[in-house]
Amino acid sequence: MDQDITALTLLFTELYYWLSMFLMMFIPAGFCLYASAIVRHKNCNNAFLTQLMILPVLALPCFVFGWWIYFGFVNGPGAGGFESAPFAVAWHPLAGGFIGIDEFGRSRINGVSWLGFLLMSFTVAAIVAGSVLERIRSGALWMLVVLVGSVLWVIGAAWGWSPRGWMVELMGFHDAYAAGVVHTVAGGFALGVLKNLGPRLAKVSSNKSLYNIPPRSIHMASFGQILIILGLLGFYLASNQPIVDVQSGEGTFFSATNIYGTPVVLSASTLNFFMSLLAGMLVGYILSAGDLRWILSCGVAGIVSTSAGNDYYHPLQAFLLSAMVVWLVFRMRYWLESRFQIDDVTSAVAFHGFAGWFGLVIAGVVLWGYPASPHEGYAIINPLGQFVGATILFWVIGFIPGHLSSSFLKFMGVLRLNPDIEVIGMDTLRNNISRLESENNSDNELQILDDIKEEKD
Prior knowledge:
Elements: H1 2-24, H2 26-38, H3 44-52, H4 54-71, H5 110-131, H6 138-160, H7 166-171, H8 179-197, H9 218-238, E1 241-245, E2 254-257, E3 263-264, H10 266-287, H11 292-306, H12 315-340, H13 348-366, H14 383-411, H15 419-424, H16 426-438, H17 442-456
Antiparallel strand pairs: 1-2, 2-3
Helix pairs in contact: 1-5, 1-9, 2-3, 2-5, 2-9, 4-5, 4-6, 5-6, 5-8, 6-8, 6-14, 8-13, 8-14, 9-11, 10-11, 10-12, 11-12, 11-13, 12-13, 13-14, 16-17
């Protein structure tokens, strides 16, 4: 009988994660549509291509060293010695899923777990990539994507989104659905890059005020955001363990648990997900006077704002906290733009970075005294631990590396597009390069160059 239960548990867990991955695949699809619709027509194909290529760019780095960074250290990188984790070593036989039994209990789920890890890495990188659209060089972007998507957020996850992370053990840090280790890190990193990158040429007027650049297709952008929201629901599912004997050794009691191993009710966290989304949409509708561009963006910010504690929140708490944070970050978006001339195309810094930061801090107050982890001797959730953890994720893991790495790229002259290319547009440039390659006649070459100059003017 025990063997039958064990077999069913393994098979159900494997199927559960595969279904989660199916939903999470809507995230890259949504980001591709959203990015291509939020930019101007002359850059829409390039924006789609940029988001599309993040997954293949990240695949090998995440498999070779990103996966190991998460599992290979006791309490996370820099907080203890090395940990035996052969299933996270790329060249080890245990690195892929297999039929059998291993001491780590990862035989059937290791492969699909890594896929979920890759899609979370994509989410971090895509948030950053969306904020810098229309003026960053592709080579520079790929270097930044690998840094934030396969190294930085993984360090944050090992510290605070792991059953044995040092921030969880010592500070009582709690981030059930990765509001901090994904969204806060991405927003902080994006802010560091944007400070060096500067606004788009068309964004700044002669008197240094900023113009509004409307999206190419608000309806397509909204559809892309709907797909992202579906993908985030899969993100929620993948952040849980579906069937665990949480009373092992003291009887049998199966439950779903969060990433830390604390029992949760999946239907309750799912209800909180939608209450947060709908509260954000409602506030977005009110603040923007019904502007479709901001309604779903505020809905996403609402999800982010409560994701740290949605395993514990009551639905009314999720709704009210989401409404409060979304109101705050919506105002802060305009403050960033007007005060510091931060040209954030997708509002990633405010709607992901700031929303995640405030969500973490508020969770420390609302959930003060709740267990951060079921492990004996670990600190409880508390305001100071959440504040320090949120600050580490935004500034130490996010902003500072983003600012330093982009400063180096700027110093080398490879961060930003040539102004002529930025004015012409990446799609126009690619199309005309294709024409040049297909024609050998010098007269045609001269005509094409004249066409480019006329479009620039």
